[in-house]
Amino acid sequence: MLIYLNLEPASIYASVHELIRMGYPDAKICREYTSEWAVEITIRLKEQCGQIELEGSIVSEFKKSATSQNCSIESLGNEQGNLRRYLQRFTCRLLSTQLEREFNAYGILTGVRPVKLIHGFLDRGYTQEEIQNKLENEYLMKQDKVRLLLEVAGNNRPYLLDPAAARKMISVYIGIPYCPSRCYYCSFPGAVVKDYEKDINPFLTALFKEMKALGEFIKNNGLLVQSVYIGGGTPTVLSLTDLQRLFDLLHHDYVTTATEEISVEAGRPDTLSLQKLKFLQGTGVSRVCINPQSMNDSTLKRIGRNHDSKGVMQSVEWARVAGIKKLNMDIIVGLPGEGSREVMYTAGKILEICPENITVHTLALKRGSMMAEKEGKADLPNRVQEVEEALQYLSVIFRQQGYIPYYLYRQKYMKASMENVAYARPGSFCLYNIQMMEERQTIIGMGGGAASKFVKAADGSLSTFYNPKNPCSYCNAIERLISGKVDKLKALN
Ligand code: SF4
Q: In terms of domains, do 136 and 85 share one?
C-alpha cells in the first residue's frame, strides 16, 4: 500500500514519520505526490502571532478523518521538545481516529530505549507520580506500559554508574559475526560458517589486532573493565583453539579483579559441547545464553534453527554440569504457527529448567531476513491481540516464579508495537545489558558488527561508532577502526 504524505513544513517529517509507519506498518511512504496513493495523509503546522495552528487529515478509499487544533506558544511551556510532542500527540490522535484503534501502546514514544527517558526524569528530581502523569498525558502512553517502564527503571537504577565511576569503568563487547546456519527470521548479515571457513583466520587476526591495540590504551589510561560480552552471531561456533586464543588475549589485556561479569552468547545448541562449556566456565565466563526461541520442535524446524528442543535440554544440562553460574534463555513471541498455547508450552519447559535470566522477544521481521523476503508476511500470525495476551501471560507467570523485569527495549517492525523484556531472578541481572541499554557507561565494541558507545562522564553526552558487520569489510577497515576508537576515547577526557 502506498501512502502519500503531504507535510507543511516538510521539516516536521522527522517528528511524525515513525508514528505514521507504526500506524501503517506494511505501507510504503511517499513524500512526492503520486496519483497511485491508497492513503493520503496531510499535516500542516503554522506558527503565527504567538499561536500554533495544526490541521490534519487522512483520506482513504472508504474513510476520511480530519481535525484541527490551536494553542498559544506560551501555553506549551519552556521545556525542550514541547512543540514536537504537541505535534506528535496531534498526529497520534489523528491516526487513532482513522484506524479506529490505539496503534502504539507507547503513545508518541517510538524510540528503542524508553527506560532511558524515565532515568532522565528521575535525575531531574521528578517523583514516580509526576512521571506517571507526564507519560500518560504528554506522551499518551497506556498505563500498564508506564508501570512497566517505572518498574524496569527502579530495578536497574542501582546498577547505573555515577559520573565519577563512569570516568574509569567501561564495558567491552566482542562481535563474532558467524553462525552455524541462518535462522529464517534473522536479519543479522552474519556469515554462515561452513561457507566462510577460510575467512575466519583473517577475521580473527584483525580482531586480535583490534583487541591488542585497544587493550593497550585501556591499560595505559587506567580504565577498568566492569563487564565483557562476547556476542555475534554465535561466538561458540569457533573452535576450542580459537576460543582459547581469544580468551588468552582478553585475560591479558582486559580482565582484572574489577571485572564482574563475562557473558558469552552460546545461542545455538548446535555449536555446544560439554567440553566447550567446561572451557568457558574454566576461563571465567559467568553467564551464557542458550536460546531456544521456542520449545516446539515443529516451530524450530519452521524457523530454520537446525536443532530441536532435546538439543536445548542437552546443552542446558552441560552448562549446569560445567558449573556456569548464570544461564539466560531467549524466547520469541509471534513466531509463525505459534499462538498462546505454544507460547505457554515453551514457558512451562523453560521454567522447568530454572534459568537465572529469561529474555522475551516479540518477533520483529526486518528486511533482510529470509522470512520477510522469501515467505512473505502472509504466513505470519497477524494476531496482535494474541501476541499481547501471550506477553501478558509470560509477564504473570515469570513474576510468579520470582523473576523481575530489569531491562527493556523496543525494535522497529515489532509485532503489536510491543517490547523485548529481560527477566531475571534478583541479584542475577546481566550488567552488560543494563549498561548497554541505559547508555551511562562507555562500551568499547570490537569485532564484526560491534557498536561502541562513548559516554562523556562530565555531561553524559554520547557518541557512537560502528564496526562493519561483514567480516571482509571489517578486516579491510581495521586500522581505521582502531584509530577512530582511540580518538573517541581520547576525546572523553
Ligand atoms: S538468530 Fe542468532 S543464531 Fe540465528 S542466524 Fe541470527 S545471529 Fe545467528
A: no
268 CA closest ligand 1 atom index: 3
Higher-confidence residue of 486 and 25: namely 486
Q: How many residues in total does the chain contain?
A: 493
Q: Is the CB of 217 under 6 A from ligand 1?
A: no
**CA 412 to centroid of ligand 1, rounded, Å:** 18
Q: Is residue 181 within 6 Å of ligand 1 at its C-beta? A: no
- Give how far Cα 142 sits from Cα of 136, 147, 363, Å: 6, 9, 21
- Rounded to whole angstroms, the Cα distance separating 67 from 5 reads 16
DSSP symbol at 107: T
State whether 214 and 311 are in the same domain.
Answer: yes
The closest residue, in CA terms, to atom 7 on ligand 1 is 233
Query: Which residue has its alpha carbon closest to ligand 1 atom 2?
Result: 233
Residue-wise pLDDT tens digits, 397-431: 999 999 999 999 998 766 556 899 999 999 999 99
Grid cell of 440 as nine digits: 551511562
The pTM of the whole model exceeds 0.90:
yes
Domain boundary among 79, 103, 127: 103
